[in-house]
Write a structure and sequence with these properties.
Layout: E1 5-9, H1 15-18, E2 23-25, E3 29-33, E4 41-45, E5 51-57, E6 62-68, H2 76-92, E7 103-108, E8 117-122, E9 125-130, H3 133-137, H4 139-150, E10 156-159, E11 176-180, E12 187-189, E13 192-194, H5 211-220, E14 225-229, H6 235-242, E15 247-252, H7 255-269, E16 275-279, H8 282-287, E17 296-299, H9 311-328, E18 333-339, H10 346-360, E19 364-370, E20 389-395
Parallel strand pairs: 1-4, 9-10, 14-15, 14-17, 15-16, 17-18
Antiparallel strand pairs: 1-3, 2-6, 4-5, 5-6, 7-8, 8-9, 10-11, 12-13, 18-20, 19-20
Helix pairs in contact: 2-4, 5-6, 6-7, 9-10
Length: 396
């Protein structure tokens, strides 16, 4: 076996790694011994040539994603152990063996000490996404580890990495099944049923990270007129109807998403449910809404800021969106508002919502501060892993 290349850090640049941060930035590197290709394993040493970490090499600001702070062999037994640790956590959360919830995240990148890898479970199908070349090159080992962990409970493994790999990696990745035959059976989430299209849908097919927040919508929905914007497959809409909403409107700019939302509502409540699925731009739709038409509004837009360079524009977008909703919502209404932009901090988001309340001229109180669920864990040494922010507001 070829020995990994060596990354030598500048003096003092090992400090973040000694605090177990899982990234090595390119500016911290003094020299490279060997000629590693993107995705290769490399050993990282401090300026005195003492071993620090082992990880995947990559091109860009993040030069190494750390797999281990021990000098060990990365082989099948290592992958099996990491996935078992992740699964043990999910079992502690009541996931993994539940019949009420059969979709959950098994691997959440740095949160599970596997930076660059996401694995979501949808019933008997596992969907993986590699966000780094190193993880993409390791997909066969990952497949073996998933099969070893689940046995015949997982009957298909789908690789959906074509849209998540670095654009400059030069890999012509094609999504497809790495193992088995998929099932088209609906998945369960807190007893609600959903069709999930992992082959063509956004992310891995369903926004698993909103599971607990959807349940909270259900607890507030009784007797309310609900507007679910950026509704995608209608997750919040299903929970609102389950909670006793008198009416629910699902709005999304994608006609296909609107059809999926309609299908999921009918799957749970039949065609006579008090639900409308509307294909429209949310900003344009809100302009035409009568004041007070809704007394529960959900704002769950896609990421407005993929990186810090567009942070200012993103915050203006959040302010504008929230101000529109606050102007339209009925007195005593409940507003669920979210940001999934990693570049937007909790404080940034709160300031944008605060300024929206000023623009709307409404008195607003915070009822809940929301985040991602526990199967999307945040490595305490990697606070950047906290990406989902949400507020539940009472609008007077």
């Amino acid at each position: 076996m070829t020995q990994p290349a060596e990354i030598i850090l500048k003096r003092g640049k090992e400090e973040s790694l000694l605090r177990f941060h899982p990234w090595v930035f390119s500016g911290a590197i003094e020299s490279v011994v060997g000629e590693p290709n993107e995705g290769d394993l490399v050993r990282v040493y401090d300026s005195r040539h003492q071993f620090i970490a082992l990880g995947h090499c990559q091109v860009g600001a993040i030069a190494v994603r750390v797999l281990s702070f021990r000098d060990e062999v990365i082989e099948d037994s290592w992958w099996n152990s990491r996935l078992q640790q992740a699964y043990t956590l999910r079992q502690a959360l009541g996931l993994g063996d539940s019949t009420e919830t059969t979709c959950y995240r098994l691997i959440h990148g740095e949160g599970d000490s596997l930076p660059g890898l996401v694995v979501d479970i949808y019933g008997t199908t596992a969907v993986m996404q590699a966000h780094s070349v190193g993880m993409y090159n390791s997909r066969e080992a990952i497949v073996r580890a998933i099969r070893a962990l689940y046995g015949d409970r997982i009957r298909a493994i789908f690789d959906k990495s074509s849209g998540t790999l670095p654009h400059n990696a030069g890999i012509d990745a094609v999504d497809g099944y790495l193992y088995g035959t998929p099932s088209d059976e609906p998945v369960m989430e807190n007893g609600n049923r959903f069709h999930v299209n992992w082959e063509r849908g956004q992310k891995t097919g369903f926004f698993i990270d909103q599971r607990e927040n959807r349940a909270l919508v259900g607890r507030y929905a009784h007797g309310r007129r609900v507007l679910n914007t950026f509704s995608y497959t209608g997750g919040f809409s299903v929970y609102a109807l389950q909670g006793g909403a008198t009416s629910v409107d699902s709005v999304d700019s994608s006609q296909r998403a609107v059809e999926l939302a309609r299908e999921n509502v009918e799957l749970n409540f039949g065609a006579q449910a008090p639900h409308r699925a509307i294909a429209s731009d949310t900003f344009e739709f809100l302009k035409g809404v009568d004041n007070g038409a809704y007394n529960l509004i959900i704002l769950d837009p896609p990421a407005f800021a993929k990186h810090h360079k567009v942070l200012g524009n993103a915050l203006k977008g959040y302010q504008r969106l929230n101000a529109q909703a606050m102007m339209k919502i009925a007195p005593g209404g409940i507003l669920f508002t979210f940001s999934c932009s990693q570049a937007v901090t909790r404080e940034h988001f709160r300031q944008a919502v605060f300024s929206a309340a000023v623009v709307a001229g409404r008195n607003v109180r915070i009822l809940h501060q929301l985040t991602q669920p526990a199967d999307h864990p945040i490595n305490i040494f990697h606070p950047e892993g906290e990406y989902l922010k949400g507020l539940v507001l009472y609008v007077e």
